[in-house]
Amino acid sequence: MKSSILVFGSHNFLATLPDQIHDANTFNLKVINDFNQAVSHIQIVQPDIIFVQASWKGSIKICSWLKEQNQLSWIHCILVEDRPYLLFEKSQRGWEWEFEITAHALNLGADAYIWLLTEETNDRLTTATKSLILSQLTVGVRKVQKYRDLMNTNDILSAIALADSLTELNNRRALEWDLPRQINKARTQDIPLSLIIIDVDFFKKVNDQHGHLVGDRLLQLLCSRLRHNLRSQDIAFRYGGEEFVVLLPHTNGDEALTVAERLNRIVKEQPFAINGNLHLHITISLGVAYFQPNDDEKGMNLLDRADQCLLAAKAAGRNQVMGWEQYSQVSNLEAVS
Questions:
Q1: How would you classify the pairing of strands 284-290 and 193-200?
Q2: 151 vs 33, which has greater pLDDT?
Q3: Region 57-81: what's the mean pLDDT?
Q4: CA distance linking residue 298 with residue 180, whole number of Å
Q5: Which residues contact 82 (CB under 8 A, 6 or more apart)?
Q6: Beta strand pairing call for 49-53 and 3-8
Q7: What secondary structure, in 3-state letters, does the chain show?
Q8: Residue 52: which of 131, 113, 103 has the closest Cα?
Q9: pLDDT at position 336, please?
Q10: Does residue 123 surpass a pLDDT of 80?
Q11: Residue 128: what pLDDT?
């Protein structure tokens, strides 16, 4: 993967930088001379390294702005000093003054501060300056690569923390993180959201008769079958034990019932092959509920309604789907009687 470089300044400034920066096989190079355009580019592209021409309008401002962005502070910002009056002062002053100027530049937000010594110096110093620029470029590339490696590791660790090790579905912690997001999206964008809670009927008998290893294998096969019969937008979670939750974004109550009926059918129609000698027939019960405007932000109301529907489906004989409308009708009839 090629590294990305942004040069904030003029094309004349770019011409003073080492030729290696222009290597299209190694770097994606972009030159921008407007502060607002540069900020927009940084936010979208997130370049690895930024060379800033100190004499250009907005140079110090862009260094300071970059360091204020927590999500972008890893970008390596190299401030190249080309202001004639400072270059002249440098030739007249001692090393203490130079150190003070360098410290000031770093405090303002630059990661590196390099004096651009070109025509007014001899060839040996010019070569040394370019060598220093290339060294800082190497530092920036190394720093960014370490950051990205760390982010990839964090992503892997996050995925592990949010995954159920047995079934490879998302776990309950993942549901607790994702459900509020889906609730907020449904409310703010005025789109439907539904939820299914699934429970394996008489699962305890499987463990009692065949052992927990068979029970675990059955759950793995069940989840694989469920996963392959869900739509791409649906998100399945292991809620605990033999209970599962399916989030159905962009899905109203009637559509969710159709999904639940299909899942119920594909589970009961074909046995699960635990091994060559053991095939188990099981059924599931399903409770279905849909998002309502007065639901709480964490989705507890939605989960509770689906759970009530699940309990009603089990009480009615298991191996069936119970939706919220049907549950409400049954509850009303029982209340009247």
A1: antiparallel
A2: 33
A3: 91
A4: 5
A5: 13, 16, 53, 54, 55, 116
A6: parallel
A7: CCEEEEEECCHHHHHHCCHHHHCCCCEEEEEECCHHHHHHHHHHHCCCEEEEECCCCCHHHHHHHHHHCCCCCCCEEEEEECCHHHHHHHHHCCHHHHHHHHHHHHHHCCCEEEECCCCCCCHHHHHHHHHHHHHHHHHHHHHHHHHHHHHHHHHHHHHHHCECCCCCCECHHHHHHHHHHHHHHHHHHCCCEEEEEEEECCHHHHHHHHCHHHHHHHHHHHHHHHHCCCCCCCEEEEEECCEEEEEEECCCHHHHHHHHHHHHHHHHCCCEECCCCCEECCCEEEEEEECCCCCCCCCHHHHHHHHHHHHHHHHCCCCCEEEHHHHHHHHHHHHHC
A8: 113
A9: 46
A10: no
A11: 83
The residues that are catalytic are: 242
Q: Report the amino acid identity of residue 231.
A: R
Question: Under a CB-based contact definition with an 8 Å cutoff, are residues 180 and 243 in contact?
Answer: no
112 vs 17: CA distance, rounded Å: 15
Cα(80)–Cα(145) distance, integer angstroms: 23
Contact status, residue 306 vs residue 196, Cβ threshold 8 Å? yes
Measure the CA–CA gap between 230 and 19, rounded to whole angstroms: 54
Distances (CA, A) of 244 to 63, 102, 332: 50, 60, 28
Write down the pTM of the prediction.
0.59
What mean pLDDT comes out for the span 102-122? Answer: 82
**Beta-bridge partner residues of 243:** 199, 240
Query: What is the per-residue pLDDT for 281?
Result: 96
The Cα–Cα gap between 131 and 23 comes to 16
In tens, the pLDDT along 164-219 reads 989 989 999 999 999 999 999 999 999 999 999 999 999 999 999 999 999 999 99
Residues 6 or more apart from 33 whose CB is under 8 A from it? 8, 9, 10, 56
